[in-house]
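Convert to structure. Protein one:
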Amino acid sequence: MKAKYLSIYDEITEKIKNKEYKPRTILPSENDLMNKYSVSRDTIRKALTLLEQNGYIQKIKGKGSLVLEVNKFDFPVSGIVSFKELADKMGLKCETIVEKLQVVKADKLLIKNLNLSSKEEAWQVIRVREIDGERVILDKDFINKKYVASLTEEICKNSIYEYIENELGLQISFAKKEITVEEVTEEDTRYLDLENHHMIVVVRNYVYLNDASLFQYTESRHRTDKFRFVDFARRNS
């Protein structure tokens, strides 16, 4: 039997999708929802927390739960797709802003996540993705300099993957991904239009070439109300 808070979550989700609870309006109070569903405050809070984590509401201290616009862009979980490829496919009005492009020496993060030695170097690329005038994705890329000797701002604004495959002749083969929901950082606040959001979806990518060499570690930080992460799965009998 489904937990009560999940049933409440499903019902409120449908009402948000059907515009019964309109974007930019406040949901009924916790007390009103407790009375409506005849449940405890803890049950209501579990449902509201799940709604917030999935980008349907934003809790605002002293005001309540703000209903968010749920028109989300589908972001594929499986497959390796550059932002440029995704934007072209979906016909999005996008701009990439290169905030930082530099060579850095391997620190503890890169030794761990990019398998570098302390003497090796990597490109650090920080880019903001703007969709319809809103800064909604922060991409932090680290690329092993052994495989990509040079990078320019123009390449980073266009497509690093396109450059690697078409100009350098390297074949990008597979990636391992981790997806988490985390609290926003000062860096997120500095680079993104967060509109009072205090949670963010973080996708960490470990990307490999066709010889199984790990060449890129990426941390891609997405505003929760703008993206839906999708996948296709088939059960093998």
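Protein two, convert as well:
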Amino acid sequence: MNANQRSSVAPTNGRRRKVVALLVETSNEYARGLLRGIVGYVREHRPWSTYLAEQARGDEPPAWLDHWQGDGIIARIENPRIADVVTRSGLPVVDVSAANLVPGIPWVETDDQAIAKAGFEHLIERGFRSLAFVGDERFNWSNWRRDQFVGLARERKIEPAVMHATVVPRAGHEWIEESTRLARWLVGLPKPVGVMACYDLLGRQVLEACRQASLAVPDDVAVIGVDDDELICELSDPPLSSVVPDAHRTGYEAAALLDRMMGGEIVEAKPHLVPPLGMMPRASSDVLAIDDPDITAAVRFIREHALDGIDVNDVVERVPLSRRVLESRFKKLVGRSPHEEIDRVQINRAQELLRETDLSLVEVSAKIGFPHAEYLSVVFKKRVGMTPREYRKQHRGR
């Protein structure tokens, strides 16, 4: 075993530990989230001895894998060389890449349609009726996100602009060319425009192109990314809003599948898709692009006070509109009724509290302005598709 490998301590209690190779890069936040999910599964169930080679995305597989004697592999199969090595191993393998280079094995991935929907809804909620998507067509997951984003926009009678780009390090002639190309495209879009980039690094590049073109962010161009890589997002100027994938659960599910396979179970070779956790809003999309000051005021009031237990009558008191006119214009511009918007803000906060705290359901209800826990359970299941307890159990690993 070379210096770049990691291995856990070997067997205890007389039962041989399973030995698992992890071909997952450590160079980005999403992949590290996968690894944390794998660790979470192992801690909750049975210990494995793990081999982890420090590598970047798409690197060649480590040389030791050619003659490695183990029990299973979890891999980001991102190139033909990795695909060949894991196939020849004859071992149980779970793929955690969207490339799907080995169709005959199960793979666990983020739900890219759900990711695109989360980004789309974030921009629609802010009133954008001009939309755009920046993707990298080399990757399946980018193309899936693009197709879903475009489809959702067209359902709203919006024809989004689409640009394909490649992340280029900020140095040399290539960066200048790519940034200039992005800037020219952004200048030609109708304003204000909400732009979804297929992942955070490309989102940051879009922000730099906006600066080069003297476009105000978020007033002229609001930008969101995907992955919620905190360092990349916070180092962006302004800080980048991002869709938060549930990488932890993805890694956890991959480990659970591999455990079943190493136990002799036959697992169907199909995709296992994990929905995102939601949005992490930051300054790059902190704007309301609604050309109606009364509805803008109503939206801001709801988002600032929904957790206080307000109802639609409280909103009516804040704007010079009758309830009927408010609801009609609100629905037309926001896509939801004022009551639905209040529920949305409350349930989103409930999800955060269920994931991140040990508060009881009664305490969660009180913190989001619901009269009692039973009512929360009914509304939560209607909106999320599961009960609060089921949701908490599903995300407990985080």
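The longest strand covers residues 18-23. The chain has three domains: 18-109+247-276, 112-245+279-285, 293-394.
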